[in-house]
Amino acid sequence: MKLSRPIIFLDIEATGTDTTRDRSVEIALIKTHPDGRREEKIVRVNPGIKISAEVIAIHGITNEDVAKEPMFKDIAASLLDFMEGADFGGFGITRFDIPLLIEEFKRCGFPFPKWEPAILDGLTIFHRKEPRDLTAAYQFYCQKTLVGAHGARPDALASQEVFLAQLTRYPDLPQDVQGLHEYCNKQDERYVDSRGKFLWKDGEAAMNFGKYKGELLRKLVKDQRDYLEWIINDGKFSQEVIDICWKALRGEFPSKRNEALAPTKG
């Protein structure tokens, strides 16, 4: 790849996935110059807010690990100096890392980026070059071209072939219907409900959408009961979400015990 200016491949570990509310805890910047020279800047950051147990389980960086590290405002100027005039590359950076950096610098009073960088995102390339549709699956698992795609019968037959080929290719998959049902419908352990409207935060349910994203459900019951009542009566939310809000208003909160929604009083 020919470079006309430095390019920095970056990755950020953070307190969560909300680019406006969460904070950086580790930043890696790998800079390559047009002449082939390479520099690295790897820093840990005290986010100023608590890292939840669920997030620690993902990246392994604890609150104690960053307690004595500088805050972002203390290193913002040096980070900008290192990045000045460079292009950026990474995996998923247009969705997370770059928006998070913009928010971090904004809180410090620095416009970012002050230049117009090129942004190269490997995740975008992956999605465009490796489509995840039935035609692609049929070619991958069955080594056949799907003729008549988007016709109901050809698609149904192809989906059956793909499914049977998957059972052969992955011998660790369950071989019975109930086991496969549980495998296909296993809930993401980060979330309280099946649609991800609530997430686990230190074992408690927290909002994962709307203006109170990141707030504990318990705190909303105390300070914003009308918001939960709006969710219950709005008519646009799933019954599962409505039940969680309804029970919370009555003092029953989701519990992570046994990874089930066992209510806890309080």
| Cα gyration radius (Å) | 23 Å
Corresponding CATH architecture of the largest domain: 2-Layer Sandwich
Oligomer designation: single chain
Name of the CATH first level of the largest domain = Alpha Beta
Number of domains: 3
Low-confidence parts, pLDDT < 50 over ≥5 residues? 258-263
Assign the CATH topology of the largest domain. Answer: Nucleotidyltransferase, domain 5
Which percent bin holds the helix content? 25-40%
Widest sheet: strand ordering: 3-2-1-4-5
The helix count comes to 11
Main beta sheet strand tally, sense and closure: 5 strands, mixed
Structural class: alpha/beta
Q: How far do the termini sit from each other?
A: 59 Å
Could you describe the 3D structure shown?
This protein has 266 residues and is of the alpha/beta class. It has three domains: 7-125, Nucleotidyltransferase, domain 5; 134-148 and 160-178, no CATH class; 198-265, no CATH class. Helix content is 39%, strand content 16%. The protein is built from eleven helices and nine strands. It has helices at 53-59, 63-66, 72-83, 97-107, 122-129, 134-142, 152-169, 177-184, 217-223, 225-234, 239-249; strands spanning 7-14, 24-32, 38-44, 87-90, 119-121, 198-201, 204-207, 252-253, 264-265. The protein has a five-stranded mixed sheet. The protein has a two-stranded antiparallel ribbon with strand order 6-7. It has a two-stranded antiparallel sheet with strand order 8-9. Strand 2 and strand 3 form a beta hairpin. Helix 6 crosses helix 7 and helix 10 (225-234) runs antiparallel to helix 11. The longest helix has 18 residues, at 152-169. The radius of gyration is 23 Å and the shape is flat. The N and C termini lie far apart (59 Å). Residues 258-263 have low confidence and may be disordered.
